[in-house]
């Protein structure tokens, strides 16, 4: 294969005889900038537009109660699995019936994860993989509950990546920007929610200052 | 790549008889027009982002060798491997070898145009792997042994009933009397069938929307979530993609992401945008243990060296197809190529040879709607015209057209002769029309009068009359 | 806008279709320019701008056509063309075609900067508006021809002039900016596609209930008119210059 590698690179270099070119990323849209309160409102608006539900609680200990309320209202039945993300530790998840912490399997109905950030620009969540979270496995469940720290609602995608990579932290194996539930318009362009990923995405924003 | 473009005129005739197809295309184009107006209105910076996206892609192509080397180094540093492939055969072989080494039986595939381009599914089937497409549209196409007719809406040519009928044939283990009336029911059935594929697959194959040099990440954009499952659940993840996809930084990719979904589907951003970097880390809770990137050249480095290199800016949003009135009149399959529409009419001659695909660059009215929506501002009509120039040089067009043009061009070189001949011609047409304003048939002009009347000239020429009347 | 007292002579490039098929459009264009205060000259040395060759890949012939047109018009301070598509050849494509021709490159660039599509010129450069409000007479719908729209940015200009003329009611069609399927030689190379595109356009035209479709490019109009006539439609097709001229004097 190294002949192929050398051959391809040589052809590319021959096609590009000039020096390296400086590249600048594009402008950050105005909707990705603003005061915290403004960004939060825009984040909620983006969630609405993307078909994700949301609720706000004012203390970490209240997160579990909101999840219970939401699951009852949804009529969700079946096992609930929450990631080992330390962000979820103070949420009192033990009280949620049928909930366990760990890696999801095919039988799980609901998954609960933390998030790296909420992104106001488009009502987007940033979720990562790691020792504490199996990221994509959480997309197997019918319902995904994502917990967002209000202090980590940022304006633009770039801001979320800055949080993720703060202090030179390496990229996790998976980083996913999630905007609303899974969808497809492949059949006659009729919008269907919930194809392979979750049909329901519910965001619990905790506005209680940073997690302890 | 299998190009059936030589049969373009026959394909067009067949498409024009397919009322179902024409209805679907009409709805697509109507919706997309309205959707784009709304999307653009919601983002005042959209045009500035298009400029930036163009510049980022130009920079990425200018720095391509360095970007690819840096990308490779970072993939390797994160426990992955990069495979360089000069053509489709090398790429298919590389993927098959990885699958063999993984001891794979089942392969789950995310949507990827490059794998269509290299004919990967056939190659894997030949090598004995059970390969399953997991994008809803691609899945039904695979079951029907058809190819995608649009880059982002691959089964746009199929009706709900055709989906249902195909599923009835394929999912024989389900009750025959189940209802598949609703798109929801069809979607649920696919979700259920493919869930099993994700869970049992040994290898997941995806494409890549962007490769990020600074991190060694593969960025994949999907709405269904199948790309995420395919690249995370199986033990081995292979990303197959064109060499032109490499950009420098995450931030560059984010600018491109801002224009991608807006151009493709009118969404602000697709439901899932995932950056996959290397293999599962040692202490990660889950993830693929093996990560491979198969880089496919397949004519791209030749394009890069030539005058049509701007086509390599393409980020495969499909907007040029969706807006193109020719695509809207004939659909994607008529092009007889993997990539249909304006972008395909530029790419196909490069990938399959101009002789086999000579119709494609000609089959454009040069209306420019494609260029007007292209998120990276590819001058598609200009690139199509370059192919026409190549075809003209190579004498690929019909002789009668060539002679007609030659005669016209020779005549117009002598304005007096042109005007005299034009005046005589006009008089003849008026005689033939016998006082009516139009001709319904005209020898040697059947290409016009087959479907259109020919309005008859008023008589005389403007320049002649002007100078006659004004006495100059 | 140009000051009224220093208006230069305008060279009118009629286009081959107007020259050979519809001289009346050329006269209408000339009258409009004269009313806007310009003296009009029509060089005899003009014929075709070379677009058929250019779009068919015959670059050599296209360059010959470009040189001929540049030579015929180089003495004019202003060149006006009653067609967006031919004007775009002057404005956009001649400089490109002759870029590596040392004798002609500069002339082509210079001419490109002095050449205008008719309605754009009347509305923007001349600052002309139709004199008298006419009594409303029927209705029209406006087809945006592709080259004028996308290569020269002509969209509001004809609508502004039609509105100011007070004449026919303007009824916008859905997708006025979608190609009618003419496309020069395209319409005879792929008639089935071209006719399908015309049908889609005509469906939109007919849905407005307008008496006529109006546009700025005779090629598109002859194509639409031919298809309208074949479909037995009562809708007419008219060049915008004729319509603006009809309401004057």
Account of the 3D structure:
- The complex is a heterotrimer of chains A (212), B (472) and C (249).
- With 212 residues, chain A is an alpha/beta fold.
- Chain A has helices spanning 2-15, 36-50, 63-74, 157-164, and strands at residues 53-57, 80-82, 99-101, 110-113, 117-119, 124-128, 143-149, 153-154, 174-178, 183-184, 192-193, 200-206.
- Chain A has a 6-stranded parallel beta sheet with strand order 1-12-7-4-2-3, sandwiched between helices.
- With 472 residues, chain B is α/β, with parallel strands linked by helices.
- Chain B has 2 domains: 43-300, Rossmann fold (3-Layer(aba) Sandwich); 399-471, no CATH class.
- In chain B, 52% of the residues lie in helices and 11% in strands.
- Chain B has 23 helices and 12 strands.
- In chain B, helix 3 crosses helix 12, helix 9 (160-170) packs across helix 10 and helix 16 runs parallel beside helix 19.
- Chain B is globular and about 90 Å long.
- Chain B starts with 7 loop residues before the first helix and ends with a helix.
- In chain B, 60% of the residues are buried.
- The mean pLDDT of chain B is 95.
- Chain C has 2 domains: 4-125, Glutathione S-transferase Yfyf (Class Pi), Chain A, domain 2, CATH 1.20.1050; 139-246, Rossmann fold, CATH 3.40.50.
- Helix content of chain C is 51%, strand content 11%.
- Chain C is α/β, with parallel strands linked by helices and 249 residues long.
- Chain C contains 13 helices and 8 strands.
- The chains are: A alpha/beta (212), B alpha/beta (472), C alpha/beta (249).
Question: Can you tag this structure with a few keywords?
Answer:
heterotrimer; A: 212 residues; alpha/beta; Rossmann fold; 12 strands; C: 249 residues; Glutathione S-transferase Yfyf (Class Pi), Chain A, domain 2; 4-stranded parallel beta sheet; 13 helices; 11% strand; globular
Q: Provide the CATH top-level class of the largest domain in chain B.
A: Alpha Beta
Category from helices, strands and their pairing of chain C = alpha/beta
Strands of the biggest beta sheet of chain B: in what spatial order? 1-10-7-4-2-3
Biggest chain-to-chain interface with counts: A-B, 77 and 105 residues
CATH domain fold name of the largest domain in chain C: Glutathione S-transferase Yfyf (Class Pi), Chain A, domain 2
Mean pLDDT of chain C: 94
| CATH fold node name of the largest domain in chain B | Rossmann fold
What is the tally of helical segments of chain C? Answer: 13
Please mark out the parts of chain C with pLDDT under 50 across 5 or more consecutive residues, or reply none. Answer: none
Give the biggest sheet of chain C. Answer: 4 strands, parallel
* CATH homology superfamily name of the largest domain in chain B: NagB/RpiA/CoA transferase-like
Placed side by side, the strands forming the largest sheet of chain C appear as: 2-1-3-4
Oligomer designation = heterotrimer
CATH architecture of the largest domain in chain C: Up-down Bundle
């Amino acid at each position: 294969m190294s002949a192929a590698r050398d051959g391809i690179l040589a052809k590319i270099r021959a096609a590009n005889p000039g020096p390296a070119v400086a590249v600048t990323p594009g402008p950050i849209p105005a909707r990705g900038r603003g005061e915290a309160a403004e960004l939060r409102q825009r984040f909620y608006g983006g969630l609405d537009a993307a078909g994700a539900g949301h609720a706000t609680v004012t203390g970490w200990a209240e997160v579990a109660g909101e999840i219970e309320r939401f699951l009852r209202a949804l009529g969700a039945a079946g096992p609930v699995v929450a990631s080992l993300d330390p962000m979820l530790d103070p949420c009192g998840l033990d009280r949620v019936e049928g909930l366990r912490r760990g890696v999801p399997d095919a039988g799980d109905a609901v998954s609960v994860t933390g998030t790296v950030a909420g992104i106001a620009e488009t009502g987007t969540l940033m979720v990562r993989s790691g020792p504490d979270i199996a990221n994509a496995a959480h997309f197997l469940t019918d319902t995904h509950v994502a917990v967002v720290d209000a202090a980590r609602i940022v304006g633009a995608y770039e801001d979320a990546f800055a949080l993720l990579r703060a202090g030179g932290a390496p990229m996790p194996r998976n980083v996913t920007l999630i905007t609303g539930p899974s969808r497809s318009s492949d059949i006659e362009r009729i919008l269907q929610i919930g194809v392979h990923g979750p049909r329901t995405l519910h965001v619990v924003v905790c506005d209680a200052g940073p997690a302890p | 790549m299998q190009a059936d473009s030589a049969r373009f005129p026959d394909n067009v005739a067949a498409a024009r008889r397919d009322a179902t197809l024409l209805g679907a295309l009409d709805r697509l184009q109507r919706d997309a027009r309205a959707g784009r107006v709304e999307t653009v209105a919601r983002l005042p910076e959209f045009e500035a982002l298009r400029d930036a996206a163009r510049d980022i892609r130009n920079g990425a192509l200018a720095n391509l060798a360095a970007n690819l080397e840096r990308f490779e180094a970072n993939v390797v540093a994160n426990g992955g491997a990069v495979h360089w492939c000069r053509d489709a055969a090398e790429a298919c072989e590389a993927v098959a070898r990885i699958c063999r080494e993984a001891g794979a039986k089942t392969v789950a595939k995310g949507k990827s145009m490059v794998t269509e381009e290299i004919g990967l599914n056939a190659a894997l089937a030949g090598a004995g792997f059970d390969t399953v497409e997991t994008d809803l549209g691609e899945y039904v196409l695979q079951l029907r042994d058809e190819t995608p007719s649009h880059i982002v809406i691959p089964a746009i040519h199929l009706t709900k009933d055709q989906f249902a009928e195909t599923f009835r044939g394929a999912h024989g283990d389900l009750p025959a009397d189940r209802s598949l009336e609703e798109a929801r029911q069809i979607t649920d059935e696919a979700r259920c069938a493919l869930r099993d594929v994700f869970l049992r697959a040994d290898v997941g194959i995806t494409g890549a929307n962007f490769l990020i040099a600074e991190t060694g990440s593969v960025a994949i954009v999907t709405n269904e979530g199948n790309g995420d499952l395919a690249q995370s659940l199986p033990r081995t993840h292979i990303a197959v993609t064109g060499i032109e996809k490499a950009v420098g930084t995450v931030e560059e990719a984010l600018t491109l992401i801002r224009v991608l979904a807006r151009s493709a589907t009118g969404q602000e951003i697709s439901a899932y945008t995932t950056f996959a970097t290397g293999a599962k880390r040692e202490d990660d809770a889950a993830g693929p243990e093996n990560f491979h990137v198969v880089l496919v050249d397949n004519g791209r480095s030749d394009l890069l060296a030539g005058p049509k290199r701007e086509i390599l800016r393409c980020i495969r949003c499909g907007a040029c197809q969706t807006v193109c009135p020719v695509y809207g009149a004939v659909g994607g399959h008529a092009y007889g190529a993997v990539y249909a529409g304006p972008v395909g009419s530029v790419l196909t001659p490069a990938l399959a040879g101009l002789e086999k695909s000579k119709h494609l660059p000609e089959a454009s009215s040069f209306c420019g709607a494609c260029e007007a929506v292209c998120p990276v501002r590819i001058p598609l009509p200009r690139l199509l015209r370059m192919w026409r120039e190549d075809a003209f040089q190579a004498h690929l067009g019909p002789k009668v057209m060539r002679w007609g043009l030659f005669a016209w061009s020779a005549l117009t070189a002598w304005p007096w002769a042109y005007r005299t001949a034009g005046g005589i011609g006009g008089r003849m047409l008026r005689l033939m029309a016998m006082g009516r304003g139009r001709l319904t048939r005209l020898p040697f002009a059947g290409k016009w009068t087959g479907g259109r009347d020919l309005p008859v000239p008023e008589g005389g020429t403007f320049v002649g009359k002007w100078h006659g009347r004004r006495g100059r | 806008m140009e000051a009224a007292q220093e208006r230069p002579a305008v060279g009118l490039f009629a286009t081959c279709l107007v020259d050979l098929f519809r001289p009346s459009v050329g006269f209408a264009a000339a009258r409009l320019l004269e009313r806007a205060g310009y003296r009009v000259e029509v060089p005899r040395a003009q014929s075709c701008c070379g677009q058929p060759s250019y779009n068919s890949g015959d670059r050599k012939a296209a360059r010959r056509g470009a040189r001929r047109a540049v030579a015929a018009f180089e003495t004019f301070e202003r060149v006006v063309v009653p067609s967006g598509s031919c004007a775009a050849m002057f404005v956009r494509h001649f400089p490109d075609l002759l870029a590596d021709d040392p004798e002609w490159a500069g002339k082509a660039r210079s001419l490109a900067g002095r050449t205008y599509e008719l309605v754009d010129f009347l509305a923007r450069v001349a600052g002309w508006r139709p004199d008298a409000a006419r009594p409303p007479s029927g209705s029209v719908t406006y087809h945006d021809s592709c080259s004028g729209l996308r290569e020269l940015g002509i969209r509001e200009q004809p609508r502004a002039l039609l509105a100011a003329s007070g004449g026919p009611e303007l009824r916008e069609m859905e997708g006025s900016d979608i190609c009618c399927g003419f496309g020069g030689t395209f319409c005879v190379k792929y008639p089935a596609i071209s006719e399908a595109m015309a049908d889609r356009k005509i469906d939109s035209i007919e849905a407005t209930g307008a008496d006529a479709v109006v546009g700025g490019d005779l090629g598109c109009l002859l194509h639409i008119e031919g298809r309208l006539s074949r479909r037995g439609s009562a809708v007419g097709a008219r060049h915008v210059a004729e319509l603006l001229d009809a309401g004057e004097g």
